[in-house]
Amino acid sequence: MLSRPVSPQLAPVLPESVTVRAPAKLNLHLSVGARRRDGFHDLTTIFQALSVYDEVTATVSPTLSVTVRGEGEGDVPLDSDNLAMRAALALADVAGCQPAGNLAIRKAIPVSAGLAGGSADAAAALLACDALWGTALDRAALLDLAAGLGSDVPFALTGGTALGTGRGEQLLPVLAAGRWHWVLAVAAGGLATPQVYEELDRQRDGDPPASNAGLDVLINALRSRDPAALGPALSNDLQSAALSLRPDLRHTLAAGAEFGSVGCVVSGSGPTCAFLTVSADHAVQLAAELTGAGVCRTVRAAYGPVGGARILPAGD
Ligand code: ATP
Fold first, then answer.
1. In this structure, which of 106, 154, 170, 290 has its CB flanked by the most CB atoms within 10 Å?
2. pLDDT at position 12
3. Nearest C-alpha to atom 28 of ligand 1 is from which residue?
4. Tens digit of pLDDT for each residue in 39-57?
């Protein structure tokens, strides 16, 4: 068992507190294969990390605990169902150390919104506890642990723009030239991911899923710096299922198109709708128009790609 060092002469001094921030994700392309024997579906997805971040501060404490402040704080569990706590427990288990510390989560990523906020918190907690406890796991081991915690957790560690296969946890970087400006229309209430997959299976009624049509077009568009090329290439197999469970999202999508977005897609399992714009100014303008139209609970302008989870310098 590792424990915090008693003598500064014998071991490196470990920090009292470590803060890590981790990004939300958007799926620019999501094709869902058939349901596998383990209950998961094979996915082919293009992730992009967006400039909406949760922060996790891990601080020395005799026991393991979680506190949550910010966006959707009342909807986040504080026990071992919390993905940040699960990440800390998994790390302690692998490293053979005591899982002790307070994890203070500051949420900006809306909960159950298809933006993988819980996965971001898990990735942030992994990095924060690794530094707090001095476990110093290498990148491959961290990615392995992350994959065991959830399909989107490895991407929250790596960030950028990436092709995800398997359950989404096998990642390859994809070249995305320039910066893309998005508006996120966040709906009132969330959608439970398993329910959206069930609805998709119901809609397919045993028919084989469609192929990965459009993936090459999207990957080329990502190199073009041209929003007019990327917009029409956005696609999500879960979108029809999300719309069937939340028909109100059709109004949100229609409003974004009416106000001049160059492309739109439901993010992951929804219900957040993401709109592509041509510039930062255009994003601010579209965000204002969507807010005025009252077609969602709240609106965020964001850009991508951004990097994955990273430790913030002390004092930030
Ligand atoms: P998924 O990653 O399953 O597609 P999502 O991106 O739509 O989900 P999340 O915000 O990650 O949404 O939350 C999904 C579920 O995970 C919610 O039921 C929430 O209560 C639970 N959860 C556990 N830990 C966290 C956390 N740290 N932050 C947010 N949600 C969490």
1. 154
2. 72
3. 118
4. 888 899 999 999 999 999 9
Sequence-distant (6+) residues with CB within 8 A of 313 are: none
Strands 64-70 and 161-165: unpaired
Active-site residue numbers? 25, 152
- In tens, the pLDDT along 65-91 reads 999 999 999 999 999 999 999 999 999
Pocket test for ligand 1, best of 73, 112, 267 (most atoms within 8 A of CB): 112
The residue type of 258 is E
- Is there an atom of ligand 1 within 6 Å of 152 CB? yes
pTM: 0.93
User: Strands, DSSP E only, in 198-272?
Assistant: 235-236, 263-266
Q: In a 3-state reduction of DSSP, which class is residue 266?
A: strand
Q: Ligand 1 centroid vs 270 CA: distance in angstroms?
A: 12
Q: Are 180 and 144 in contact (CB under 8 A)?
A: no
C-alpha distances out from residue 31 to 100, 164, 223, Å: 40, 10, 21
Amino acid at 254: A
Residues of the chain predicted below pLDDT 50: 1-2, 5-6
Query: How far, in Å, from the CA of 5 to the mean position of ligand 1?
Result: 35
Is any atom of ligand 1 closer than 6 Å to the C-beta of 269?
A: yes
